[in-house]
Amino acid sequence: MAAYILRRLLLMIPTLLGIMLVSFIVVQFAPGGPVERVIAQLTGTEVSATARVGGGSGDFGANQGTSGGSGGDVTSKYRGAQGLDPEFIKELEKQFGFDKPVHERFGLMIWNYARFDFGESYFRDVAVVDLVLEKMPVSISLGLWTTLITYLISIPLGIAKAVRDGSRFDVWTSGAIIVGYAVPGFLFAVFLIVVFAGGNYFQIFPLRGLTSENWAELPWYAQILDYFWHIALPVLSMVIGAFATTTLLTKNSFLDEIKKHYVVTARAKGLKERQVLYGHVFRNAMLIVVAGFPGAFVGAFFAGSILIETIFSLDGLGLLSFESIVNRDYPVVFATLYIFSLIGMVVTLISDLTYTWIDPRIDFETREV
């Protein structure tokens, strides 16, 4: 097992390099960039992703004077740069690191990331690590509770549907699951706000934030209640469509196992149905469900909450990544991509190792990575 873990860890290195290289190349051909954004600030044509993004390096450009020079060759590279001092443009390129060749910039980025040095945001004037840590509690809350509640609902429901396959219970729960899966999470979030957060009917839950403004002054038990009070609607919005796939996967996996010969043999020996189901079938049927855990967790943790964070004014990693891409804040874009990819691969490895805990018959040492 140690040799398998070592091979998987070593395989992460070229995988990360490939992800970062492809992303870096795509960015080179993408229109716009941090230099163009500062120029747009100077000319009054900037359109930001949100009103919260600004300051930092952008103030550098706003504080510089302009000249009526011809623009030169350096200004011709950037849209809207005509009329700006070429030396000022060169200073911008140096500030953002674009005075170096492409391969040198990529090599320096990889070297820094290997040491977990992610630099500073272009437009927020704060270290990327500090920025990510600041947004982490929101994404952890959404991802953790969404995944936990999804599995707590999906596994028992999937087992119940498998045992009652074809019954009325199976039919109407399948209908409810399909409807829940078909309704977009952000649309359900708007519905919850309208009904329960002061839209038109009830004012039961808060509309924004992860905690109340006086959270630090509350006693510990009130802090816990306040936290769950704020997180209830966002998590419910994400759970409504998340459990459908896992429920049907659990059901189909149990149905497949129930039809196998060892189940017939166990029943013939006089074992009770519960003993057969949870003593024999459960371990084998849950393997495929466990395989889907990394994707469910990482998806809910990082990608599945962008719109939910926006609707409920939750400043998390999903919203941070979206804003950084739109505003061309490349240090944040590449750092979050690197962190997300690394965490995803580690979680996938943990999931594979969980296979051996659920079913000791699986031996990764005999497999090729």
Automatic annotation (TrEMBL):
GO CC terms of this entry: plasma membrane
Protein's cellular compartments: Cell inner membrane; Cell membrane
Transmembrane regions: 9-30, 138-159, 171-197, 227-250, 285-312, 332-358
NCBIfam families for this protein: PRK15133.1
InterPro entries hit by this protein: MetI-like, MetI-like_sf
Chief location: membrane
Topology term for the membrane: Multi-pass membrane protein
Domain of life: Bacteria
Keywords linked to the UniProt accession: Cell inner membrane, Cell membrane, Membrane, Transmembrane, Transmembrane helix, Transport
Family from the record: Belongs to the binding-protein-dependent transport system permease family.
Record has Membrane as a keyword: yes
Entry-linked Pfam families: BPD_transp_1 (PF00528)
GO process annotations (BP): microcin transport; transmembrane transport
Span of domain ABC transmembrane type-1: 136-351
The protein's name in its UniProt record: Oligopeptide ABC transporter membrane protein
